[in-house]
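Technical note accompanying the year-one report. For the benefit of new consortium partners, we illustrate the data format agreed upon in the data management plan: each record pairs a sequence with a structure-token string. No post-processing was applied to the example shown here.
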Amino acid sequence: MQTLKINVEKIDKTALYNGAKGKYLTLNLKENKDGTDQYGNDGFIIQDIGKDRRMAGEKGPIIGNWKNAAGFTPKEPTHFMQSADAEDEIPF
């Protein structure tokens, strides 16, 4: 099991995109360079902002941390998607 904690107030809503079944958010997991930190976090979560913005030199916001509870090691890049039916229903 992996535990992810996300600060939804840091999500860049302009990077959400419409898919076939709703509105999506793509996230990337990165490992901490120095291993587990003082809070037990093994890495951090970055919001993917899209290829065009990355190519322009922009970086996605760090929106949270993750903990490895069962020997999980993410491969580069790891994407997680969260769906919402409509932007108006997103609580942030």
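Partners are asked to follow this layout when depositing records. The chain has a mean pLDDT of 84.
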